[in-house]
Amino acid sequence: xxxxxxxxxxxxxxxxxxxxxxxxxxxxxxxxxxxxxxxxxxxxxxxxxxxxxxxxxxxxxxxxxxxxxxxxxxxxxxxxxxxxxxxxxxxxxxxxxxxxxxxxxxxxxxxxxxxxxxxxxxxxxxxxxxxxxxxxxxxxxxxxxxxxxxxxxxxxxxxxxxxxxxxxxxxxxxxxxxxxxxxxxxxxxxxxxxxxxxxxxxxxxxxxxxxxxxxxxxxxxxxxxxxxxxxxxxxxxxxxxxxxxxxxxxxxxxxxxxxxxxxxxxxxxxxxxxxxxxxxxxxxxxxxxxxxxxxxxxxxxxxxxxxxxxxxxxxxxxxxxxxxxxxxxxxxxxxxxxxxxxxxxxxxxxxxxxxxxxxxxxxxxxxxxxxxxxxxxxxxxxxxxxxxxxxxxxxxxxxxxxxxxxxxxxxxxxxxxxxxxxxxxxxxxxxxxxxxxxxxxxxxxxxxxxxxxxxxxxxxxxxxxxxxxxxxxxxxxxxxxxxxxxxxxxxxxxxxxxxxxxxxxxxxxxxxxxxxxxxxxxxxxxxxxx
Length: 530
Hints:
Blueprint: H1 3-26, H2 30-45, H3 49-53, H4 62-68, H5 74-85, E1 97-104, E2 109-116, H6 117-137, E3 146-148, H7 177-186, H8 199-211, E4 218-220, H9 225-247, H10 262-271, H11 276-279, E5 285-288, H12 298-304, E6 309-312, E7 338-342, E8 348-350, E9 359-365, E10 373-385, E11 388-396, E12 400-401, E13 408-409, H13 410-423, E14 430-435, E15 443-449, H14 458-466, H15 470-477, E16 482-490, H16 492-502, E17 515-516, E18 526-528
Parallel strand pairs: 3-4, 4-5, 5-6, 14-17, 15-16
Antiparallel strand pairs: 1-2, 7-8, 7-9, 9-10, 10-11, 12-13, 14-15, 16-18
C-alpha cells in the first residue's frame, strides 16, 4: 500500500459521498430534479444574449422551453461561440467562460466547447457519484495509484486565435478544485508527459513510469484498444525499457526525467512482458468504453488482466456527462445537466418520460451554455435505477456512409460486427468497415486485424448481415455496389491513429469506429493474406 495515494483516495471518497447521496435521493424524484435544473439555467441566462433572444424570462416550464427554443447542432452555436472567442461575455451564460475546450468529430477537429465553472461543477458531480460507488464496491482500489490516460500535445498542433484560453493544461483539469488535486496525488504517471512532442518518447516514458508503479490499482482510459496498444508497446520495447529502468531515463527536464530503479528492473526482468497481470498484481479495475463498437475490444483487456474488473464507462462527451457507471448499470446523470430524448418518429421526451426498450437520440442543456444541443448519440433504455433510465450507448447517429444511397450508419454497422464476431469468434484487435475506393472498386471492405485464420464463410456471412439494411441491399441488387470484402491487415489502430492525427485530431480524441466515412484506407493499412 502507498500511504500518500491511499490517503488521497480516502479523502476523495469522503468528499464524494455527499454527492453520491444526493444522486441516490434524486433517483426517486427525477422529474422534480430535472425541472429544477432547467429552471436554474433559464433564470441565470435570462439576461444573456441567447436568453434575451429566446425569451428565457418568460419561459416557466419544460413544455414552454421545448416549444420556444429549437434543438440545435454545434454549427448552429458557432455565431455565439465566435463572439466568445472575440472576448465577449454574457453571450450564452451569465457565468464567465473560462476556456474553450477542443472536441473532435469523426474525421477531424470541428468544435470548441465553452467551459464555465458551472459546467465543471456538473462534471464533478457525475465523477463524484461514480468514484464513491466504485470505492464503496472495491475498497482495495484506494490502496494504490491509478493510471488515467493522457492526451499528448504536439509542437505542430494548430493554434486557435482566441481571447479566451483554448484547451486545458492537464487532462484532469476539467474537474478543477479538490478533485483535480486529489487525482494528481494518485497518478502513476505525470501530467508533464503531455508536453512530449514525440509519440515514440511518449509511449516509452509512460511505460517506464507504469513499470515503476507495481502497486497500480486502477486504469482509466477511453477506448479499450488504448490498453492493448500499451501492452503491445511493452512487448516491443521490453529490452530498452529494462535498460532504462535500471540506469534511468533522462529527457533534460526535472519533471520528465525518470530515476533508475535497479530493484524493479531485476524483478521485472524475471517476469517478462508476456504476463502483465504479474507485473501489476494489484490491478483491480479497468474503466473504459464498453458499448457500441468498443465492446469488441474488451475481451483482449480481460484476457490480459483476468483478475481485474473491466467496467464499461458511461456515455461521456466533451460537451456533457450523460450516463454514470453505477454498479452494473449506467443511469442518466440526472444531477449534472438537463436532458431530452428524441424518438425515431421525431417526438421529443423529457428524461422522466422514456420507455424501456426504446431507442432515442440525446438532446442536452448544460451549464456551459449549450441549449437543447444535439449530441448525435443514440441510446437505448435498458431498465431503470429507481426512476432514472438506465441507458446503453448504441453509436453516433451522424456517422453515415451514403455514396450510392446505401445509408449505412455506425450503430447499424456496429450491430453487424457484433453479430459477426459472435458467430465467428476471431477476437479482432481492430475492425472497421469503409468504402475503400468509391470510384473504382465500388464495394465496402472490412479491414480486420486478428491472430486467428479467418473462416472462408465469414465474408458471405458479413454480406448477409449488411443486407439487413434495405438501402444497402437495393444498391447491391442494382449493381451500384459489389459484395463486401474482408481484408486482413497489420497495425490497424496505429495506422488508423496516424491518419486521424494527420487530419488534426489529438490522440486522446481518437477512438476506433465500426464505420469510417473516409475512403482509400488500403493506402494506410498493411494488408495480409486472409
